[in-house]
Design a protein that fits this description.
- The complex is a heterodimer of chains A (280) and B (329).
- Chain A is an all-alpha fold and 280 residues long.
- In chain A, 73% of the residues lie in helices and 0% in strands.
- Chain A has helices spanning 12-34, 36-39, 71-107, 109-122, 127-138, 142-168, 172-179, 184-221, 232-239, 247-279.
- In chain A, α3 (71-107) runs antiparallel to α4 and α3 runs parallel beside α10.
- Chain A is elongated.
- Chain B is an all-alpha fold.
- Chain B contains 13 helices and no strands.
- The chains are: A mainly alpha (280), B mainly alpha (329).
- At the A-B interface, α5, α8, α9 and α10 of A face α2, α7, α8, α9 and α11 of B.
Chain lengths: 280, 329
């Protein structure tokens, strides 16, 4: 993509540390997601009626809820579901939307028109409303959160990639490839794809955050993950009724969600910078 | 509209107002086919829910005769195309049906709740604009220095924080601990209502402010090095005039597009914010109606939300064309 003017850039000494912090946060979240049992002593759904609503202490660093369940354990076990929602919710639309955008941009014509009209119409609905409507039709539960995110998420990638392909396909090196008689498939995947993918990769990092937040808000509203399964948004919802005297039930899951989000955003920022420097 | 178009032309350059008006009319007409397809989707929504909608709405304990009556009332017994014609006839005549939960016409329900959601969205938008322009400009002026880094780091965190978490934390602090603001709900006087909007609007505006600020910062950084800015300065006009007329005006162009997207997003976000703060707006009604299986209300709400987004997009395109004379009509 040709651009003029100086683009904003972090100084090199700060680029790397921010990116590294992002990677570390995300790696730490993955550790929580992969081996939660090695980190916590209590099960996430173990009820202890003798220790209800205990404030944070040595035995329960994040306190307990109204069933005496250990919040630390619940928060750690949640990482698996929340990261899964973030990453799976991003990957499928990334691939599907990306391919659709490539094809629509390259071949233009009917496919392009149909695709763009579908997007125009779906864009008339606010994002959260669209997700909720799909959840209403499909019913509650985690599986349907994925389906809703997939049905909604592909549009951004398709538009992003299509826009870049439209600019790129008139470039000389693509015309040269066409004249040289390369197969359309080779031109699309070997010549165009590598040149249009970077903006989608950058967007994907923030999309993970968006998917995680959306998944969590569906559970928060009671439409997504159902109790007693631990999930950050669901725990927040459980703690909502007790905010006047048990702030810890609400505070910690949200904190983890926010920190994980910051981790992915930092990676996204680092990638933007890296790709920018490379592009110069 | 014509007066506005002419006014804008006299202010912003010399295009024929007729063109401008044509553009607006064309743009309004473009909404109609989209609304038609949207109406088909919303019509199908109720029919796509697995099971008998009438049975779902009334629950398992309802008598078969009541279910049959509702089925008849919703027109579910007729063939689909006929159902759609009836559905559209009702919408166009302003009859959106009756809510099963509230036992009131849906149109009345929406009319009562619309002002709350609109006030919330407008208040959040206003807050975001007021905060993001100075912050974005400040960050751009201090590019890569400590001030810039601090603003950008804050923005990064603001984007990653879940709104419902922020909402609950603010409630704990300002309502439960400090008792400064009401815990939720909507007041009867204007003063109470304004107070009820403070925390929801602030929460809602956080992410928008962060995204707008980022965008403004980057645009200002890009624009400041442009030749026309140097030229404006070399003419000897004041720095404030350079900033307002040459830098901000151009930064507005991409910001307006982003703001429209965010306003649409915030309308949807009202579902969450209004639920947390128990604000009786459209978003809360949406959640309550979904759980109450009051699908007649859900249908109308989705339609209203889509309509509002289309209006926002329409206004954006018009504003955009006023800001950027290069946009062709």
């Amino acid at each position: 993509m040709v651009r003029t003017g100086k683009r904003p850039r972090l100084p090199p000494w700060l680029v790397a540390p921010a990116f590294v912090v992002g990677v570390l946060i995300v790696l730490a979240s993955f550790v929580l997601a992969i081996v939660p049992g090695k980190i916590v002593h209590y099960g996430p759904i173990d009820v202890d009626t003798t220790a209800r609503m205990v404030a944070p202490c040595v035995a329960h660093p994040f306190g307990t809820d109204n069933y005496g369940r250990d919040i630390f354990s619940r928060v750690v076990y949640s990482a698996r579901i929340d990261l899964q929602i973030g990453i799976l919710g991003m990957i499928v639309p990334f691939v599907v939307g990306g391919v659709l955008g490539l094809l629509a941009g390259y071949f233009a014509g009917v496919l392009d028109s149909i695709l763009m009209r579908i997007i125009d119409i779906l864009m008339a609905f606010p994002f959260t409303i669209l997700v909720i409507v799909i959840m209403t039709i499909l019913g509650q539960g985690i599986r349907n959160v994925y389906i809703a995110l997939w049905l909604v998420g592909w549009m951004s990638y398709a538009r992003l990639v299509r826009g870049e392909v439209l600019v790129l396909k008139n470039c000389e090196f693509i015309q040269a490839a066409q004249v040289a008689g390369f197969s359309t498939r080779r031109i699309i995947f070997r010549h165009i794809l590598p040149n249009v993918i970077s903006s989608s990769v950058v967007f994907a990092a923030s999309d993970v955050v968006l998917c995680m937040l959306t998944g969590a808000s569906m559970s928060f509203l009671g439409l997504g993950v159902q109790p007693p399964t631990p999930e950050w948004g669901a725990i927040l919802n459980e703690g909502r009724g007790y905010i006047s005297y048990a702030w810890w039930i609400t505070f910690f899951p949200g904190l983890f969600l926010a920190v994980a989000g910051v981790g992915f955003s930092l990676i996204g920022d680092g990638l933007t910078d890296f790709l920018r420097t490379k592009g110069r | 509209m014509c007066v506005l178009a002419r006014l804008s032309c006299s202010r912003l350059g010399g295009w024929a107002p007729v063109n401008q008006l044509n553009y607006v009319i064309r743009r309004v007409l473009q909404i109609i086919p989209v609304l038609l397809v949207v109406s088909v989707l919303i019509f199908l929504m109720l029919r796509l829910i697995p099971g008998d909608p009438a049975r779902l709405m009334l629950g398992d304990k309802a008598k078969e005769s009541a279910v049959a009556a509702l089925r008849e009332k919703l027109g579910l017994t007729r063939p689909l195309p006929t159902q759609y014609v009836i559905f559209m006839k009702q919408i166009l005549s302003g009859d959106l049906g009756t809510s099963l939960t509230y036992q009131r016409p849906v149109a009345e329900l929406l009319k009562d709740r619309l002002p709350i959601t609109v006030s919330l969205t407008l208040a959040s938008t206003l807050l975001s604009l007021l905060a993001s322009f100075p912050l974005g400009y400040f960050a751009a002026k201090h590019k890569d220095r400590a001030g810039d880094q601090a603003v950008r780091a804050t923005a990064l965190v603001a984007i990653a924080m879940p709104s419902f978490w922020v909402a609950l934390l603010l409630m704990i602090l300002f309502c439960v601990k400090l008792h400064w603001l009401p815990v939720g709900g909507w007041g009867s006087t204007l003063w109470e209502q304004a107070r009820a909007l403070i925390l929801p609007a602030f929460t809602q505006s956080l992410m928008t402010t962060a995204l707008l600020m980022r965008n403004i910062r980057n645009s200002v950084v890009d624009i400041t090095v442009m030749d026309y800015v140097d030229f404006a300065r070399s003419k000897g006009i004041s720095e404030a005039a350079v900033r307002n007329r040459h830098i901000f005006r151009n930064a507005m162009i991409s910001t307006v597009t982003l703001l429209a997207m965010r306003m649409a997003y915030m309308l949807g976000g009202s579902v969450i914010i209004e639920t947390v703060f128990s604000l009786p707006g459209l978003g809360k009604l949406m959640v309550d109606s979904i759980f109450g299986r009051d699908y007649t209300v859900v249908q109308s709400l989705v339609f209203l939300f889509a309509f509002m987004v289309l209006v926002i997009n329409l206004l954006t395109d018009v504003i955009y064309s006023l800001l950027d004379p290069r946009v062709s009509f």
